[in-house]
Design goal:
heterodimer; A: 110 residues; mainly beta; 58% strand; B: mainly beta; 7-stranded mixed β-sheet; 4-stranded antiparallel β-sheet
């Protein structure tokens, strides 16, 4: 069973709008990571947030973490057509394993 | 260019054939991983190697074997391929548990 589950499964927005994706997980974590995958390519690491952090920013990306609700969100501001991709959350629960969710497919229309 | 290199990029096998997927990283990372990605299921961990000389099973190890040849290289072997192993396979590496993974570009495997 998957530790992280993204919501929504798919999202279609206009260029310039903000995109918000959510991730829920089941057990305590050490950190939570977000990745982007363009069609036919490998995953690219975007941002990592530790369990004792609540918010993190990187460029147009903002990630929040609520450990009491076991959830995280990824906000992409002022979306561009180049942001079209699948986005995955991944949770590290200890040891050396990181478990990935099924992803959110984002489509940004020009 | 620094990163994770996977070979081959594409492969078609007949049921029962064997093959080895190769992975090498040049970032001096300790940990290496093999995942498979199937439509609608995200990535599932097959095997991982926390450090040179160690390997452990992940979520879906059946039908696979791995070898951590040295710190740089981590190979995945399919001894007798089955159609259920048709998937995209990704190798990844990381330096420590609190850093993100660097992924290879994947191997698209079809078993007929």
């Amino acid at each position: 069973s998957q530790q992280g589950e993204e919501d929504p499964q798919a999202l279609s927005i206009q260029e310039g709008e903000n995109a918000t994706m959510n991730c829920s997980y089941k057990t305590s974590i050490n950190n939570l990571q977000w990745y982007r995958q363009n069609s036919g390519r490998g995953l690219v690491h975007l941002i990592l947030i530790r369990s004792n952090e609540r918010e993190k920013h990187s460029g147009r990306l903002r990630v929040t973490l609520d450990t009491s609700k076991k959830s995280s969100s990824l906000l992409i501001t002022a979306s561009r057509a180049a942001d079209t991709a699948s986005y995955f959350c991944a949770t590290a629960t200890g040891g050396f394993k990181t478990i990935f969710g099924a992803g959110t497919r984002l489509f940004v229309k020009a | 260019n620094a990163g994770v290199t996977q070979t081959p990029k594409f492969q078609v096998l007949k049921t029962g054939q064997s093959m080895t997927l190769q992975c090498a990283q040049d970032m001096n990372h300790n940990s290496m991983y093999w995942y498979r990605q199937d439509p609608g299921m995200g990535l599932r961990l097959i095997y991982y190697s926390a450090s040179e000389g160690t390997t452990d099973k992940g979520e879906v190890p059946n039908g696979y074997n791995v070898s951590r040849l040295n710190k740089r290289e981590f190979s995945l072997r399919l001894e007798s391929a089955a159609p259920s192993q048709t998937s995209v396979y990704f190798c990844a590496s990381t330096g420590t548990v609190n850093y993100g993974y660097t992924f290879g570009s994947g191997t698209r495997l079809t078993v007929v």
